[in-house]
Amino acid sequence: MKRFRTHLGLLLPILGLPILLAHIYLERYYLPRGDDYDFASGAKNHGIFGNVIYGYQTWEGRFSSYFLNSLIGSSGLFPYHTNAVMLVSMALFVIALALVLWRLEGKYSYLLWFDMAFIVLAMPDQIKKNAFYGMDANIEYVLPVTLTFFVLVFLNKMIRKRFEKPALLSLGFMFILIAGFNPLIAMTLIIGICGYWLSLYPQQVPQSSRLKAIFLGTMIGFAIEVIAPGNFLRLYIDTGGDLPGIFFIATRTLDELGADLPFFGTCFVYALLRAYGTGTSAASFGICKTGKAACWYGISVLTVVFATYYIVIYGYDGNHPSGRTLMLAYIVTYIAALDMSQWLARTYPLSRYAFFRYPLCRYATFSSLLVSISYLPTQGFSHLILNLENGPKMQSIGLAQIDNAYRAQAEKSAAKLIVPEIPYYIGTFFGGVAPHHDENNQAFAKYFGLTDIEFQ
């Protein structure tokens, strides 16, 4: 068994790191999409802060996301060089996730590259397309998750006493801004911190003052976000003025959770295989150290996942949540699965059960479970290869679209931009003009002062 673990420990990082680097590399082919052009044209017409106020009043309350999107949209990076921003953002996200898993996994942290590659491969393509490869979604979801991970990893770092109060004020202000990226991350932090406090009560909570500063800042940012007039206006427009019933949305939420169970099940089975197959350690940052902590941890994660689906389905009038909105729930579930599985393996070792004392029984069980969870990552790997093959072709098509739009704008000779028929996977995954008539193409045309986009 030790020799098997040694070989596995050498093989998995070798397999995992290239997969992560390939996903980062894909960012170089990214081009702006409809929402990105919407922010850019808004910043052009209203100014950066004017666009933030306009969006807050007419669409949504995510003020931090509006500010950064408007800033980039009005900069010299847009639209040709926004892929540089996405490259940096994706690289920082991978580093932040690596730090979190490193703190969780103790002496087995050398496996974190494969753990990260597994979650990225197993994620549905819809999430990666919307969250990783779209500027608006990347800033709205990936960036605040990255910042939160960095803060949590270094939360226990000691500083001089005279710097503690300025640090607390900075933390509170920082999380006002982080909560302003989207309400889901604020909700996740609020539920997670409450669950952590309850899991330790009545014991002393480590770094209690810093957690309170994070909690207070998140609550303030969340309050600013949810009272935005634009939230109610958007909900009214999306639902046609007929607000959906809470019980109807609860039923739809359970239906959608059931449809996504293969992903959640894959995460937990993989985490259990990791814990029981490669050994466990007393995690230095892990929350699951007692049965009480594991119970509150599980309740918190289930609450986060259910609330994420419920809020988004309510906002979309009972429709399935868009890919990027589920990214946070998926990552939280995956990290929780890795942490809880270590506690389970320490508390209930296989040696307690007669069936698993025989090597053949262990290997047969592990092999069967491994085959059962191979579908999603295998599908993700095939999509990765397809996107790497089509990236250069996509970039040339997208750049030609932008060049032609600038030319039409300069010459003022055509009200319409005529583009060739676009393959569906290119038009939807990487950006640019969508392969059919929709509102995203209207935003593209609006930015360049055109009236419409016509397909040959």
Q: Profile the largest sheet.
A: 2 strands, parallel
Class from secondary-structure proportions: mainly alpha
What's the arrangement of strands in the largest beta sheet? 1-2
Q: How much β-strand is present in the residues?
A: under 5%
Query: What do the pLDDT scores average to?
Result: 78
Number of strand elements = 2
Low-confidence runs of at least 5 consecutive residues: 280-285
Overall shape? globular
What's the helical proportion of residues? over 70%
Distance between the termini: 62 Å
Annotation field: number of helices: 20
Order of helices and strands: HHHHHHHHHHHHHHHHHHEHHE
Rg value: 23 Å
Task: Summarize the structure in words.
With 456 residues, this protein is mainly alpha-helical. Among the domains are: 155-227; 379-456, no CATH class. It has helices at 2-25, 34-46, 48-58, 63-73, 82-105, 112-122, 125-132, 135-153, 164-179, 183-200, 208-226, 229-239, 246-259, 261-278, 291-315, 323-347, 359-372, 375-411, 424-429, 439-447; strands at 416-419, 452-455. It has a two-stranded parallel sheet. Helix 1 packs antiparallel against helix 5, helix 1 (2-25) packs across helix 6 (112-122) and helix 3 packs across helix 4 (63-73). The radius of gyration is 23 Å and the shape is globular. The termini are far apart.
